[in-house]
Amino acid sequence: MRLTITTNVSVDGVMQGLGGPDEDRRGGFDRGGWAPPLVDTETGDYLDQVYGGAAAFLFGRRTYEIFARSWGAMIDMAKMPIGVALNSRPKYVASTSLTDPEWAGTSVLTGDVAAAVRDLKAQQDGDLLVPGSGVLVRWLLANGLVDQFDLLIYPVILGQGTRLFPDTGPDTALDLVSSRTTSGGLTIQTYRPLGRPEYVH
Description:
The protein is of the alpha/beta class. The chain has helices spanning 41-52, 61-70, 75-78, 81-88, 113-123, 134-142; strands at 2-10, 54-60, 91-94, 106-109, 127-131, 148-154, 173-181, 187-195. It has a single domain, classed as Dihydrofolate Reductase, subunit A (3-Layer(aba) Sandwich).
């Protein structure tokens, strides 16, 4: 499987609490729910297509719990295309603390997670989709396990909150595969990692 990161971020790179005011208030974050007012029809259709085309899903624990409470538990959300995909396909969680997941179709990856992810990638075709999951995304990138990034960049500066990429971390060159702008001003960028960047010396 191709490991694909699909993440919604603000222009200043914030990915925290996009869905609602109480989704993630860590660090005193009080600007949650910033994404829904900006989602246009094209973005919704794109996300339906991406989730609908995934063979399986890989989560960090916190994002998994947010998704399980919403897409996995709310009947109206479970009936939407994203909910149908999430509820009908295998879900994997990289976690040392989650022991008894209640969302049907979930397996917890423990021990050597890098080996477990490599094994998943080798098992079948299609996309292993990683929604959100900032801590996991940064770990996957540092371990060379990311095949593709889909970044949905929303036209808003939040000024606070957890960012997708930290102040320090691995450096990675990217190949821009595709780029488009929706009628509502979101940009959807698809990148593939190319290894270390080149620097002028």
